[in-house]
Amino acid sequence: xxxxxxxxxxxxxxxxxxxxxxxxxxxxxxxxxxxxxxxxxxxxxxxxxxxxxxxxxxxxxxxxxxxxxxxxxxxxxxxxxxxxxxxxxxxxxxxxxxxxxxxxxxxxxxxxxxxxxxxxxxxxxxxxxxxxxxxxxxxxxxxxxxxxxxxxxxxxxxxxxxxxxxxxxxxxxxxxxxxxxxxxxxxxxxxxxxxxxxxxxxxxxxxxxxxxxxxxxxxxxxxxxxxxxxxxxxxx
Amino acid sequence: xxxxxxxxxxxxxxxxxxxxxxxxxxxxxxxxxxxxxxxxxxxxxxxxxxxxxxxxxxxxxxxxxxxxxxxxxxxxxxxxxxxxxxxxxxxxxxxxxxxxxxxxxxxxxxxxxxxxxxxxxxxxxxxxxxxxxxxxxxxxxxxxxxxxxxxxxxxxxxxxxxxxxxxxxxxxxxxxxxxxxxxxxxxxxxxxxxxxxxxxxxxxxxxxxxxxxxxxxxxxxxxxxxxxxxxxxxxxxxxxxxxxxxxxxxxxxxxxxxxxxxxxxxxxxxxxxxxxxxxxxxxxxxxxxxxxxxxxxxxxxxxxxxxxxxxxxxxxxxxxxxxxxxxxxxxxxxxxxxxxxxxxxxxxxxxxxxxxxxxxxxxxxxxxxxxxxxxxxxxxxxxxxxxxxxxxxxxxxxxxxxxxxxxxxxxxxxxxxxxxxxxxxxxxxxxxxxxxxxxxxxxxxxxxxxxxxxxxxxxxxxxxxxxxxxxxxxxxxxxxx
Lengths: 236, 481
Hints:
Number of helices of chain A: 13
Structural class of chain B: alpha/beta
Strand order of the largest sheet of chain A: 2-1-3-4
Strand order of the largest sheet of chain B: 1-10-7-4-2-3
Shape of chain B: globular
Number of helices of chain B: 22
Largest interface: A-B, 66 and 66 residues
Largest sheet of chain A: 4 strands, parallel
Oligomer: heterodimer
Strand content of chain B: 5-15%
Helix content of chain A: 40-55%
CATH architecture of the largest domain in chain A: 3-Layer(aba) Sandwich
Number of strands of chain A: 8
Shape of chain A: globular
Radius of gyration of chain B: 26 Å
Helix content of chain B: 40-55%
CATH superfamily of the largest domain in chain B: NagB/RpiA/CoA transferase-like
CATH class of the largest domain in chain B: Alpha Beta
CATH topology of the largest domain in chain A: Rossmann fold
Order of helices and strands of chain A: EHHEHHEHHEHEHHEHHEHEH
């Protein structure tokens, strides 16, 4: 199977370790990963902020770059949701490539049929299911099913987990007060778990929650769950 | 309404006087409001979930509700005329109002003709939307709200902040204070026990029901085949208004039409469970024109457009007209829970308000509301008629006027991101530009984050640390491996 990695613009720039983790997980499972360097951004920020015309060139670029692959994997729930939910309405030929675009846990659990990826990670971890993964992709239990197989992990449940963290892309900038109020409640729930690591399927949401946890000097670290799945117990 | 004219937008209490972020700021900072909202929304949310989860065919009911409403939207003019014919044949008088002002004028004239100096009111969103109480007051007619929560809001000189629970922003101690100050016949020793508060309101209202000549209501549903109007309520005060006065005037938005009586079977299951979290509401009143010798003998129905034809003209946005005003979306919305209803500046707050108000007024007059959402999708999941609120929000954001600086940076970013070479160069430039800063932050505080950014990044760093570009982009790692 020709698997292409769509890294996403945010991860390429600020969270390369997440892309490295996805590559290592898939290679450990015996698959070959390709990274077509002509990829850019899915256009979600533009489309969701009201700039559909400005998003369209990115949509066309994505379809052009990824159309020849059997599967495209993305370590982002919201970028996957953008491609799968919105692309078919934005590009006449996008439906097929959109259907072959998977969030990491979908590729591992649904397509490759794996839940144990041979990971080892020592730590108390709680998981926040991000909105687009939860309610648009319906990822359900898949990321947690993968995390439960990690040796040494101590997974703890997050109260009100399904509630949005207040990020919402440009919402965080346009409505900073309401966004911060939501963030505070999310951080309180995370601290209540006593976890030292918060994991999620989206680094944008994690930048928001982590930005709040860091501002509060909470000592809680945020990690994309792919980085936990890539871990083999050796100190990072 | 000419077939070729562009449908007009509506007026009334549907325009936010302040941008949502500005209006929300003091509300978010109000500890009493936050506590009241959190408690109330979480209580109703839990009740709704329990009574929805127990219905085995809930998904099919939602599909049916959405399908009936979509069908109504496809043939609304025909169904409205059928309703008019049936209601008229049953002895009702049907009036047509283009907008809020015309609807108010009709109700004022009818009330005057009935010789009324006051009217009793059934809880109704349409009459709040058209600001009927103000119009009646200007005409020297006093409107008495009889729904307990509407009465609280009216006595407090306030406006509703929730579709179902207009006084959701008050707790019972605050309600006792309003009653003590503003309800002349409230007992002096009134406590904040819900039973005592309800009893005080009951005594206060009873005299009004017995003396009023005119009642004003809205309607939850209007059945085209039979000309029947339906009001769904909890308290029985509506039933009093609908049966005791001689004249009954009902103000009904044109989207309230359902084709047949049988369609009520679907909505009378969907509405109470989604709304109050009850299996069935205590009172469902239905009336068809006039029944000689029983109930109101003068029955008027005012069908109001007030921007609804403009909403209907938008193939994506028109699903907002499917709304049955249950409030489930408000109760699950994390933005509503923190900002409250007044921040939306319209009688329709929350997610449904964020898509309905801007469409009724035209997006330019309510430009901040489509952005008053994180697009988290909780509203879509609970909507009993499957209105895809996130989809409509994104759709309306296309029509909103965009700030100049934002537009320029979005265009610039799009120009870079549409071209792989430009994007790769921009990534490298960002990484190089932030390089020394990132390294310094890493040494000093152990993290590649910034605690302060200039505008517009300051909106982020006011409450969150900001990430810096990594020392090596992913594509640089890929090329070197």
